[in-house]
Each structure stands twice: as C-alpha cells, then as structure tokens.
Amino acid sequence: QRRVHGITIIMEGNVKEQPENKKMEDLQPSTLVPGTNAIPTPTQIPPVEESKEESEESDEEEAGEIYKKIVSNFPEEVKERFVAIKHWVDKREQLEIEKEEEILAIEKKYAELYKPINKHKEEIISGARAPSAEELSTLSEYKKPLPVEEKPDINFEEMKKKQGIPGYWLKAMQNDNDIAENIMPQDIPILNFLTSIRHEELEGNSYRLIFSFAPNDYFKNHELIKTIHMDSENEEECKAAEGTTIEWNEGKNATVKKIKKKQKTKKARAVREVEKMVDTESFFNFFKTNKAPEEEEKAMENSSDEEEDEENNLKAEIVKQDFSLAEEFANELIPQSQYYYLNLISDEQSDSEEEPSSDEDMPNDSEGEDSELKEEQDQENKEQEGKGKSKGEKKKKGKRKGEHKDEDLSLIHISEPTRPRLITYAVFCLKKK
Fold first, then answer.
1. Which pLDDT belongs to residue 165?
2. What residues have CB less than 8 Å from 55, skipping those under 6 apart?
C-alpha cells in the first residue's frame, strides 16, 4: 500500500516468501492479478532506500506508471473505462496548474493594490498627517451620537493633545486574546513605541510581518521583521520562522531576567549568592529565528536517543507556535485592527466562527414533531415486543421523510472540496436503487 498525491494505491498479487538473506537484485516483482486478496507484507518486500529529492521527483511519474500497470491487467471492455477516466484526470491536473498560476498572479496584483491603502492608514494612526477631504466623505454619518451598549475605554483628553492615535497597536494587540497571552508586563512600555505593523507577501505562501518602532531607549532597531518560510512542497507547512536580531541597549533586554542563586564556595563550605541572567517569557521572543527539524532529523525520531527526539519535537512545536501567532497577525489583527482597538471582536464571536454550534444550541422547530414520532415508534415497538419480525413487515410509520435503508442507496459521486484554508465542504450524491 502506498499513498501518492492523496491516492491510496494497493498493489495486489501473489508474493512468495523470500529467504532473509536474499539480495534485493535477486527479488523479482510478482505479476499483478486483479481480484486477488494477497497483499505483500513488509517482511516480504525489502525497503528500497531513496533520498527525499528522488522520492518527490518520482512520485507523480510513479503514480501514473502504477495505474498503467494495474489497468493493463483488466479485461478489454473494463480497461477502456479506466483509460477514459485517466484522460479526464490528466485534463483536470493541467487545469489545476493553470488555476494556481492565475491565483498567484491575482494575489500579487492585489498585494500591490493593498500597499497604498495600508500606507494611508498608517499615516493617520501615526499622526504623520491630518485626514483628507476624501477620507472624511462619510463624516456626516457619524455626526449624531448613536446609542451604544458599552463605550470603549479611551482617554480622549490625552488623545486630543497628541497626533494620530497613541498606543493604537498595543491596545489592538491586548484586545486580541491570542496575541495578548504572549505580552508580558515588561513588554508593554516597549510596545507603546510600536507605530505600524505591515504584512508583505513573498514567493509561494511565504510572507513577512514588519513591526516599525519610534526611537526608544530599549533597542536600536527601527524595524523588527518576522519572516515565515513555507515549505515549497507543502505550502500549508511552515519550515522556518526567521526573526530580526534585536540590538538591545544595556539592561533593557525584555527576554531575559536576573535571578539570584545560592552557590557553595570551596573554602569552609560557605554559601554565597550569585546573580545570573536567564531566559524569560516575552513577546519579543517572537523575533527569534526557529527552524523545523530537517527530514533526516525527523527520521531519527524513531531512534533510541530520547534526548534527540525530545529536542526535535520541541523545535517543531516552537515553529508551530511562531506560525500560529504570525497567522493571527496576518489574517486577523492587521486587516481588522480598528475593530480590535475598539474591542468589538469578542472570544464568543471568534469561537462561533471556528466551531459549529452543537445540536443543543440550535433552535429546533420540529421538536414537537420529533416527540410525536418517538411516541409512535415506542408504541409500535411495544406492539411488536415478543413477536418475530415477518419477512414482509411494513416500514415504521415514524420514519422521517428522506430516510432510507442503507441498501436502498448507492453513492454515485463526490464533489470537489472548496478551496483550502477557507470553510470547506463537499457534496455526496446518492442515487436510489
């Protein structure tokens, strides 16, 4: 059994047991016999060692060759059907390639169109300029105060004295719980100097986040950048999270703390206290560079070295955490920062978007009908109690419309799923026999 491009292919055939000392070149592949149930076991087929690159390059070609070998053994009248299917599969694969190229071109086009929009928004937030007449074209809609349940916690008197919206990004980050849990008390004074956060697309699905800071006493950098490198073969998997090295000023590093530790001296076995710098939790740890374990390191996870396994697992987990936080910035905070600043996006809203409601939470207009059906079924069950079911027994009266026995339906088609990374569904088409 082998999984190639999402297709599980089972090679069927009669395989004779080979002596353990038999060399690989002496083993001949068995002839495929469609319809047999004999499946080679791992002990019967010695593993073939090949590099990751060789495996990836040969996967697509191998899938087609295996398909051809299997179908070539089918009866002629059946073979034609599978050859016809493969013809349309090939056509679809070509369209997939064209679609991805067009999507990439559209994403690049709109990434460029977003840039001036984001720039204008940053200028207003930072106070670089006053709002223009075009930007205030809808101001009349906001002239009359409207009733609200809860007013945001904003110091308007302080804001009037300054340009722009002071502390805009810090407040927005603190109102996004997925980000706020990474912000420690020592980070808050530093994040008050944060003037903008930008999201830029790179090749493939890779991207970077650019955090701009006003001059401050904490570090020399004007920008801190986090670059998310996606795997070229699997564009849903992050292979590295690269960050800017922060040039901290002396005594201002938020990612370390000073602790006092007792230490024994050699003379008279006296105890003394020594100060030591140790790593501590901080939002600015996000800007450290982390890489996922390489393939050869992953392969060692099955080794007996538990320390190496644990280290690889830790590396992979840190990269996942970096990726998750970066995704929250790119897909949530940056495009909806004004809503997070005003704390208009609650946990309940986020949860309801991500998790479907349970049946108990859903309003059910047919509760009375279901109750009647249940009573009817219970009554019928009581009447049939102690009796054997006759061959020509009628269907239950309480059966809902659209219900069928399993044997009454056959699956004839499954639709293509919708685009990944969005809400996804597929349609199963059933036909009544």
1. 94
2. none
Task: State the average pLDDT over residues 42-53.
Answer: 44
Residue 302 identity:
N
* Among the listed residues 167, 216, 166, the one whose alpha carbon sits nearest the alpha carbon of residue 188: 167
Give residue 91's pLDDT: 94
* Cα–Cα dist 330/209, whole Å: 8
CB 58 within 8 A of CB 20: no
354/363 Cα distance (integer angstroms): 19
Residue from 174, 221, 168 nearest 192 by CA: 168
- Taking each helix axis from N to C end, the angle separating 52-72 and 76-126, rounded to the nearest 10 degrees, works out to 150
* Cα separation, 4 vs 64, whole angstroms: 10
Residue located via tokens 């998790």: 355
Q: Per DSSP, which regions of 174-286 are E strands?
A: 194-201, 207-213, 223-230, 238-243, 256-264, 271-279
Q: What angle do CA 301, 307, 308 make, to 5 degrees?
A: 40
- CA 258 to CA 278: how far, in whole Å? 6
Phi/psi of residue 282, nearest 5 degrees: -165, 150
Task: Identify whether the C-beta of residue 322 lies closer than 8 Å to the C-beta of residue 291.
Answer: no
C-alpha angle with apex 78: 77 to 83, nearest 5 degrees? 105
**Per-residue pLDDT at 329:** 96
Q: In this predicted model, what pLDDT tens digit does every residue of 239-273 receive, in sequence order?
A: 999 999 999 999 999 999 988 887 777 666 677 77
Query: How, if at all, do strands 223-230 and 207-213 pair?
Result: antiparallel
Total-model pTM: 0.60
What's the sign of the alpha-carbon dihedral 309, 314, 319, 323? positive
Angle of CA points 426, 432, 433, to nearest 5°: 130
